[in-house]
Design a protein that fits this description.
Largest sheet: 17 strands, mixed
Enzyme class: isomerase
Family: Belongs to the diaminopimelate epimerase family.
Strand content: 35-45%
GO molecular function: diaminopimelate epimerase activity
Pathway: Amino-acid biosynthesis; L-lysine biosynthesis via DAP pathway; DL-2,6-diaminopimelate from LL-2,6-diaminopimelate: step 1/1
Helix content: 10-25%
Catalytic activity: (2S,6S)-2,6-diaminopimelate = meso-2,6-diaminopimelate
Shape: globular
Structural class: mainly beta
């Protein structure tokens, strides 16, 4: 029998945005910030951009109102232990896990999140499509300014529901390293922190991006960020049709996802999800 500090895990990724999945169906395990930091450390732990705790929604009093629709809740934590409202790549990996271990038997599944219930579909090509919900625009007259390379770049503030500051550049290389969070001004405009995306035009309905995720640093992909980027791109470039059959192709360092505005006005995100390993992690005593 595993000791209290030995936890079974599965590891997976969505376009190289990687996660450690921990099953806690009865909601008995408390993961501290330090536990998450240890697990996600790429030198002394397993290594990941975040942790996905799988718990039955009924076990979470704060979100029990979602239980009638979503049997399972995705408790997502960034690699520094902080909490995020949603994770577009993580939820696809979460669904792939539910299917792989037999917790679901249908192609359509609803998942509880801190951003609300998200409806997902496993497609025949093994991709997963997620209804990511509506876009909310930053409600302020101030324009976010991103500081990079001693310059200030105007940005668009978008919530998915995670906060994003999206800016358009000529080259993704010109922004330099994104390991340290680029300053976003004024500092009060995103009181809970913000993900920062840099976008380049690749052609009609096609963009590429890099991202610094709050609590994780630069990552190979960001699902909510891809949605924010596609929405902002559709308003920045005249040849972008986000409501087209495939939507907008968003290239990330770890692959490609597609973002489309669907009939209910929400954005959908389609991309791969892969499980790669399983084992036990030994938390420090």
């Amino acid at each position: 029998m595993a000791s209290l500090n030995e936890i079974p895990f599965v590891k997976g990724h969505g376009t190289a945005n990687d996660f450690v999945i921990i099953a806690d169906l009865d909601g008995r395990r408390v993961l501290t910030d330090q536990d998450v930091q240890f697990i996600c450390d790429r030198h002394t732990g397993i290594g990941a951009d975040g942790v996905l705790r799988v718990v039955r929604t009924l076990q979470l009093p704060e979100f029990v109102d979602q239980a009638d629709t979503a049997e399972f809740f995705m408790d997502y934590r960034n690699s520094d232990g902080s909490i995020a409202e949603m994770c577009g790549n993580g939820i696809r990996v979460f669904v792939r896990y539910l299917d792989a271990v037999g917790l679901i038997t249908e192609a359509d599944v609803a998942v509880g999140t801190r951003g609300g219930v998200r409806h997902c579909r496993m497609n025949s090509d093994l991709s997963i499509t997620v209804d990511m919900g509506p876009v909310t625009v930053l409600d302020t007259k101030a324009i976010p300014l991103i500081g990079i390379q001693d310059e200030l770049w105007p940005a668009v503030g978008v919530f998915m529901p995670n906060p994003h500051a999206v800016t358009f550049v000529e080259s993704l290389e010109e922004v330099g390293s994104l390991e340290v969070a680029p300053p976003v001004l004024p500092p009060t405009i995103f009181p809970n922190g913000v993900n920062v995306e840099f976008v380049v035009y690749r052609g009609p309905n096609h963009v590429a991006m890099r991202v610094h995720e709050r609590g994780a640093g630069e990552t190979m992909s960001c699902g909510t960020g891809a949605c924010a980027v596609a929405w902002a791109s559709a308003r920045n470039y005249p040849d972008m049709d986000i409501a087209s059959e495939r939507g907008i192709q968003v290239d990330v360092p770890g692959g490609t996802v597609y973002v489309r505005q669907i009939e209910n006005g929400n954005l959908s995100l389609t991309g791969p999800a892969t499980l790669v390993a399983r084992g036990n992690v030994l938390l420090p005593a």
